[in-house]
Amino acid sequence: MNTPTNAALFERAQKVIPGGVNSPVRAFRAVGGTPRFIARAQGPYIFDAEGTRYIDYIGSWGPMILGHGHPAVLEAVQKAAVDGFSFGAPTEREVELAEEILSLVPSMDQVRLVSSGTEAAMSALRLARGATGRSKIIKFEGCYHGHADALLVKAGSGLATFGHPTSAGVPAEVVQHTLVLEYNNVAQIEEAFALHGDGIACVMIEPIAGNMNFVRASVPFIKRLRELCTQHGAMLVFDEVMTGFRVALGSAQSIYAKAIPGFEPDISVFGKVIGGGMPLAAFGAKRAVMQQLAPLGPVYQAGTLSGNPIATACGLATLREIRKPGYFDALSASTRSVLDGLLASAREAGVPMVGDCEGGMFGFFFASELPTTYAAVMATDKEFFNRFFHAMLDRGVYFAPAMYEAGFVSSAHTPDDLRATAAAALDAFRALR
Ligand SMILES: *Cc1c(COP(=O)(O)O)cnc(C)c1O
User: Fold this and answer.
1) What is the rounded distance in angstroms from the CA atom of residue 420 to the CA atom of residue 433?
2) Is 105 helix (H, G, I), strand (E, B) or coil?
3) Does residue 410 have its Cβ closer than 6 Å to ligand 1?
4) Backbone dihedral angles phi then psi of residue 38, each to the nearest 5 degrees
5) Using 50, 70 and 90 to split pLDDT, how confident is the model at 3?
6) pLDDT surpassing 90 at residue 161
7) Of 141, 167, 204, 420, which is most buried, counting CB atoms within 10 Å of its CB?
8) pLDDT tops 90 at residue 178
9) What is the pLDDT of residue 158?
10) 270 lines ligand 1 (CB under 6 A)
């Protein structure tokens, strides 16, 4: 049998799937070229349809923190599959996973399991609105919270005007309660609360924004958000779909709690790592808030496949690995080492590059200083990133195919992989200069 090429598969895919992909970024539109069709993966590597091997720094956009095909996870999933795919009735494993998540994130008393980050963020939003009886929400430019209508919004022209839909098919009325502010801008958030404080249900934020590459919310910004939310009776929602169990065992909120004594968000949203590569996500809060949900309270939320037995087995096995002593220290050291290697290669080749990392997540920019807002991210050298992306792909290293995405390291990446990445980068930079 002939093995099909990536190009042939892409052509075939475009006939039957819009753009040839089931999620837009996979199409390589930002960087150009032909997407690789992945045939299989093992440890830190993915292999495309043509048999080419790549060191994987996407990790399915975050979930594959243990690398691909981790034996303990594989075994858990295989066992669960034999016992049944889905029952539409409660299982012990859902309770175990909820207990496991809650033991690692003390800001929550209860969680509800769902099937995607979009669903979790959308449900958290409804819960915040239901629990406060308010409509207005604040989000930040450059943060992505899934594709629920109310969250697909770009900034309005001023603080008194609410946003405009970023997608066709979202009526203006649906986003009329969504205010979009600049990330890390304390003055704007103060002004917004002064204007709308008693109508704001929640402020939703990616505490480390991974959907504009890698941009941290500053400690003073998070501290002020917390104060304003508390003062005005609004809920602070941490969207940790990407950062959860990825930047630290206690997620990003544990990092801010170290800098801000007693800090807790009101609602937290998880996904990606907690499913270990299976469709699973969650949102949680204190008991009084979570009890607003059906069947106990008036906020409706449901899902046929929620708490799926195979997904929960996968997530549980993943969390049990990452909570082993020393796991995060080793992962953080690997991530630091990849980033340092890339930066050293750039320096050697005379390419201006900056970067940042936390736990198993990193970002780099072709710029002279780290951006702190979406506008600053947009001002970094995108054209050079696109050329670098392809140069690295040609050298067997797979970064996310867009400048606006974070990178992910797994515990399966070996020192050899990390060194090979830095060497490929030096070679690529020299070729591009
Ligand atoms: C990936 C992501 C989502 C959406 O999750 P899906 O599972 O893709 O629906 C929401 N919020 C953040 C911060 C994410 O990174």
Assistant:
1) 20
2) coil
3) no
4) -90, 130
5) confident
6) no
7) 204
8) yes
9) 65
10) no
Quick one: which atom of ligand 1 is closest to the CA of 121?
Answer: 10
Distance 117 CA to ligand 1 centre (A): 4
- DSSP 8-state symbol, 84: -
The distance from CA 348 to its chain's CA centroid, rounded to whole angstroms, is 31
**What would the pLDDT profile of 39-67 be if each residue is shown by its tens digit?**
999 999 999 999 999 999 999 999 999 99
Alpha helix locations (H) across 5-116?
6-16, 71-83, 92-104
272-304 residue pLDDT tens: 999 999 999 999 999 999 999 999 999 999 999
Kindly state if the Cβ of 122 falls inside 6 Å of ligand 1. Answer: no
Report whether residue 318 contacts ligand 1, using a CB cutoff of 6 Å: no
C-alpha 166 – ligand 1 centre gap (Å): 17
Label residue 194 exposed, middle or buried (CB < 10 Å: 0-12, 13-18, 19+): exposed
- For residue range 317-334, list pLDDT tens digits in order: 999 999 999 999 999 999
Mean pLDDT calculated for residue range 367-393: 96
Catalytic residue positions, numbered? 144, 239, 272
Indicate the residue type of 403. Answer: M
Q: Look up residue 206 and give its two tokens.
A: 């990616």
pTM of the predicted model over 0.90: yes
Q: What is the sign of the dihedral through the CA atoms of 370, 340, 277 and 400?
A: positive
CA distance 119 to 138: 18
For the beta sheet containing 53-56, the strands, ordered from the edge strand earlier in sequence to the opposite edge, are 38-42, 45-48, 53-56, 397-398
